[in-house]
């Protein structure tokens, strides 16, 4: 079918088309990209782990437990790595926050005068990576650019890149006023050239760390409620789930909030993925200030009901990152070359 006709059908019928599915076999697996925190000098760099076989709850650290990618640009620290596969399956992109908090600790200042860029790497095989590049995506009114992720939008033939920023008034160039984080987005076809940034999700209070997965023509978005906890906001500092048939809709339908409450003290940095085999989805939530990532699972993505996995063996101190399903060849290559 010609590409133009296919895109027309996608727009007409609202189909959701993502990267090609991984052909699952017992030799399939997963790649976990993450950082380990600001408590050590090299914790804010990119670490990899590979699953043991096709088990998304058992992991082996790669590269001897050392960073696989390190930042030489911007703040020289990278957090919140996000991995995605191109729609033709031939390329991988890794996006990350340009931020180093080791030895800093001033969270207010880095949201007023922090980086407006994201960091980008490319690879054809997940082993050999391009030179790091810095991509300016946020407007001058932004004080920070946190946790960039992207999702392929087949209807427009471009990636939707989204992140969290505090926005300040245009007549406040020093960013001295009050603000809160909202989710922004821009589009790109190459992660080099980006459209003008626009607001994607602004509920009137601070939200960060959105991630998206599509299933049966519906997008499911997971976001951290960043408000300070109070009796009137009992789900603050936890992850909420929404759904929409339109990736760029200004409002989404509520599914669930307080995800993980009772099993974890608080949560952020969700990463969600479908198992290579069977109808099961996994949602890893970063219990920041606690254990790091804790896995949850469900057999019904639409329900909003997530149960903490009963047993798991994750890498050491994994923080906000991504789990990417792999083909058998990709899984074998990572174990062979980066063990």
The N- to C-terminal Cα distance equals: 42 Å
Q: What is the CATH top level name?
A: Mainly Beta
Helix content: under 10%
Looking at CATH, the homologous superfamily is Glycosyl hydrolase domain, family 43
Taking the sheet with the most strands, its summary is: 4 strands, antiparallel
Structural class computed from helices and strand pairing: mainly beta
User: In what range is the share of β-strand residues?
Assistant: 35-45%
Architecture in CATH? 5 Propeller
Here the CATH topology equals Tachylectin-2, Chain A
Q: List the domain count as a whole number.
A: 1
Mean pLDDT: 93
Which residue ranges are poorly predicted, with pLDDT under 50 across at least 5 consecutive positions? 1-15
Side by side, the strands of the main sheet go 3-2-1-20
Which sequence of SSEs, written as H and E, runs from N to C? HEEEEEEEEEEEEEEEEEEEEH
The counted number of beta strands is 20
Please give the count of helices: 2
Overall shape: globular
Gyration radius, in Å: 19 Å
Protein name: Glycosyl hydrolases family 43
Signal peptide: 1-23
Organism: Amycolatopsis magusensis
Keywords: Signal
């Amino acid at each position: 079918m010609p590409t133009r006709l296919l895109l027309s059908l996608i727009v007409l019928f609202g189909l959701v088309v993502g990267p090609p599915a991984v052909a699952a076999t017992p030799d399939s697996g997963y790649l976990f990209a993450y950082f380990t925190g600001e408590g050590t000098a090299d914790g804010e760099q990119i670490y990899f782990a590979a699953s043991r076989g096709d088990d998304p709850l058992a992991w082996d650290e790669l590269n001897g437990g050392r960073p696989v990618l390190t930042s030489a640009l911007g703040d020289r620290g990278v957090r919140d790595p996000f991995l995605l596969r191109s729609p033709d399956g031939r390329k991988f992109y890794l996006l990350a926050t340009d931020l180093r908090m080791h030895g800093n600790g001033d969270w207010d200042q880095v949201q007023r005068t922090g980086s407006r860029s994201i960091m980008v790497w490319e690879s054809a095989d997940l082993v050999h990576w391009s030179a790091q590049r810095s991509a300016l995506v946020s407007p001058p009114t932004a004080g920070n650019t946190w946790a960039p992720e992207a999702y392929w939008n087949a209807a427009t033939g471009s990636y939707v890149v989204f992140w969290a920023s505090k926005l300040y008034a245009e007549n406040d160039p020093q960013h001295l006023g009050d603000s809160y984080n909202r989710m922004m987005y821009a589009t790109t076809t190459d992660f080099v050239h980006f459209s003008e940034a626009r607001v994607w999700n602004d509920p009137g209070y601070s939200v960060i760390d959105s991630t998206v997965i599509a299933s049966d023509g519906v997008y499911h978005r997971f976001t951290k409620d960043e408000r300070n906890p109070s009796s009137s906001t009992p789900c603050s500092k936890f992850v909420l789930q929404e759904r929409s048939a339109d990736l760029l809709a200004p409002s989404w339908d509520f599914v669930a909030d307080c995800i993980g409450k009772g099993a974890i003290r608080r949560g952020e940095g969700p990463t969600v993925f479908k198992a290579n085999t069977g109808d099961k989805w996994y949602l890893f939530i970063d219990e920041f200030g606690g254990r790091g990532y804790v896995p949850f699972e469900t057999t019904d993505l639409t329900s909003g009901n997530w149960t903490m996995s009963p047993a798991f063996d994750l890498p050491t101190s994994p923080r906000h990152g991504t789990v990417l399903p792999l083909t058998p060849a990709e899984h074998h290559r990572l174990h062979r070359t980066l063990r």
